Amino acid sequence: MANIYDSAYDLEKAVRESQEFQDLKTAYEAVMADEIAKKMFDDFRNTQLELQQKQMQGMEITEEEVEKAKKVVELVQQHDQISKLMEQEQKLNVLINDVSRIITKPLEELYGAQEQQ
Amino acid sequence: MANIYDSAYDLEKAVRESQEFQDLKTAYEAVMADEIAKKMFDDFRNTQLELQQKQMQGMEITEEEVEKAKKVVELVQQHDQISKLMEQEQKLNVLINDVSRIITKPLEELYGAQEQQ
Ligand SMILES: [Ca+2]
Ligand SMILES: [Ca+2]
């Protein structure tokens, strides 16, 4: 019987060595090495985080804030390096979500089986 | 280089065969097999879910609802089989959280490294 932590570290290694992670790393480092790109990306991130936090706290988001967020998104989408980075982030998100679904399947089956009774 | 999905399925197997999951399964099946315990547990779950959803939607939670939730929690905590189940759920949650932290470490390192610059 394989130990859960051993298997988890094997999986971590697989993530780290994957083409998806290596491509993300390259894209991230390219953005961080470019002062203007880095600032645009940080602005984008901060705007997203701010809105998420407001939403989670049940605070109202003003029309101006929505407009500002849209503009920041448009700006980063026009930047080749940043849109490449966001594309790689998206790919890794899909991968991590798949992995999460796989490893929590035993729980889903246990709880789901009862649901159907 | 190990494939991510192969490693994820290995980890799923390790979760499924773990003592923690087997103990959770036993505890869950014991509650589900007892009509009264099952009803109490379902009530508890539904109350928790309802409050969570309201919170996420930024809706106000009344004092009566808080009181009701407290009573439901007290009730299930006094039930041996249900408190055993909740204890096992908690153990598996810790395990799954540990695993999540391990497999997302490459990402944390990549983003964290830049943060410190
Ligand atoms: Ca059920
Ligand atoms: Ca930074």
Automatic annotation (TrEMBL), chains A, B:
InterPro entries: Com_YlbF, YheA/YmcA-like_dom_sf. It comes from the Bacteria. The keyword Coiled coil applies. Residues 49-79 form a coiled coil. Keywords: Coiled coil. Belongs to the UPF0342 family. This is UPF0342 protein NC661_07265.
